[in-house]
């Protein structure tokens, strides 16, 4: 069996996916990007290969994507995260009847991508200027509220009154606003639900810029947060498709692209 890999060198997390020659996932791995993007990317790839009992040579083609993709010089090719995300969402979205709009929230940016029925990108919009609608906002909120990131979702559903309005449009000001709300005696659950609704409103505005068509797919690390998923569904007025491993869709898309490019080259050589 031969294998193909995609590595998504994200601003916050490095994601690696390995697929076999049929495009089936062999394994995925997620680790923090830290400050040493290149070293941590190499380590992440080696960790996954070790876990799968594979050698580097078993991986015939590797594509890098994401914010830090240019640093990963060992890749055979690199593609934008828009393309990789679209491929990953198109492929995994088939199990849900197909998807046409992709919402991705990452550690430092958020995107909305529209794809056609064959998976081609027809439109996209990106917010990479402001941390307010991104995972960074959640990381800061979790720290202020002394909660684990993984617990924000459950906390959202414990709110006993309406989510609080978070008015600040900037993460730095929002941090002060959260502290101010805590000092007034407001509960953590109402505050975190308010933060989720604030991110949801921004996300839906971004998605509307590209046009929202069914089905709407939601991925990126923050899609692991069920409270945020519920808030976006509420703001959007429709259900979201959230894949089983939302943080690794883009790495998976890069791995699928690696497989397809390799197979295309092979058939050209044979012709
Ligand atoms: P990037 O590609 O920009 O590095 P990711 O898609 O990997 O971003 O998302 C990173 C963000 O995902 C983090 O900032 C964090 O807010 C969120 N996240 C990661 N793991 C979890 C989790 N288990 N539960 C909730 N949110 C998470």
Describe it.
The protein is of the alpha/beta class and 271 residues long. The chain is built from 8 helices and 10 strands. A hairpin with a 5-residue loop joins β7 and β8. The radius of gyration is 19 Å and the shape is globular. 48% of the residues are buried. It binds adenosine-5'-diphosphate (ADP). Residues 10-13, 66, 106-108, 135-136, 138-139, 149-150, 220-222, 224-225, 247 line the site of adenosine-5'-diphosphate (ADP).
In short:
The chain contains 8 helices and 10 strands. The chain has 271 residues and is α/β, with parallel strands linked by helices.
- CATH-assigned homologous superfamily of the largest domain: ATPase, nucleotide binding domain
- What class do helices, strands and sheet pairing give? alpha/beta
Count every helix, treating DSSP H or I runs of 4 or more residues as helices.
8
Biggest pleated sheet: 5 strands, mixed
Number of domains: 2
> Can you count the beta strands?
10
Radius of gyration: 19 Å
Top-tier CATH class of the largest domain: Alpha Beta
What is the first-to-last residue Cα distance?
23 Å
Mean pLDDT: 95
Low-confidence stretches: none
CATH fold call of the largest domain: Nucleotidyltransferase, domain 5
> Which hetero ligands occur in this complex?
adenosine-5'-diphosphate
- Arrangement of strands in the largest sheet: 3-2-1-4-5
Helical percent range?
40-55%
Question: Strand fraction band?
Answer: 15-25%
User: What is the level-2 CATH architecture name of the largest domain?
Assistant: 2-Layer Sandwich
What overall form do the CA principal axes indicate? globular
| Helix/strand order | EEEHEEHEEEHHHHEHEH
